[in-house]
Amino acid sequence: MSYPxxxxxxxxxxxxxxxxxxxxxxxxxxxxxxxxxxxxIQRGLLPALDQVERHWRDNWRAGREKKDDSLCKGALIIVGxxxxxxxxxxxxxxxxxxxxxxxxTNFFPTVFNPLIQRLLSFPIPTVAAVNGHAFAGGMILAMAxxxxxxxxxxxxNAWMCMNExxxxxxxxxxxxxxxxxxxxxxxxxxxxxxxxxxFTAKEAxxxxxVDRIVAGDTESIVSEAQSLAESVSSLPGxxxxxxxxxxxxxxxxxxxxxxxxxxNPIADDAAARARL
Length: 276
Fold this sequence. Notes:
18% strand; single chain; alpha/beta
């Protein structure tokens, strides 16, 4: 089944499909590179997540009542636009976003952070089918999922990267909190945040940023993501998956809930001038 979620103009932001009884797939449709705009997040991703949880909980309650564990299974896959094999998500629409004078104070606490918090507290396992580049906010979206299946890059280049250091943007506390929780060690975290390293799929697999890499096109990535999702879909059957994940990422939730004004190089230099 397919459940398109659209803007009033009719332009779909995401497509929600239900390929098996226990799996849901959210496909991003904000152009080929799936920029994480306010519209995509608030009118596409968040409503789609609500629909998935509502559907799964209805099944789960029925399964509890009928004592049928098969109804309690569930897992979610998030994938970039399936009509291309280049991007999972190219991150925020930075050039346009910063034109909003309220961007630095409002976007993360009121738009982006609620999405990440939603994913980190979701009641069923989540799998990112990384079918191309995952830059900046796109990497955070993938890292907020429980598992990551990535194209191996043999068809075309695909990188995971937090490239903010290369254009002078500072990381909000919320994004840094996610990376601290998900990076396997301080050395990898340094490469991510301070070096803006472009991890190839093989590098990402070797350091533990992704769980599997797959040759082929987007449909091959989705197929492997479905295999992984099915293998863990029984784990939320007793209802504790989301509860345990919330405890696991307690420190991240604290970072997500703090409205901290993001600093920038100009303000930092002005403070240094006053101090020195």
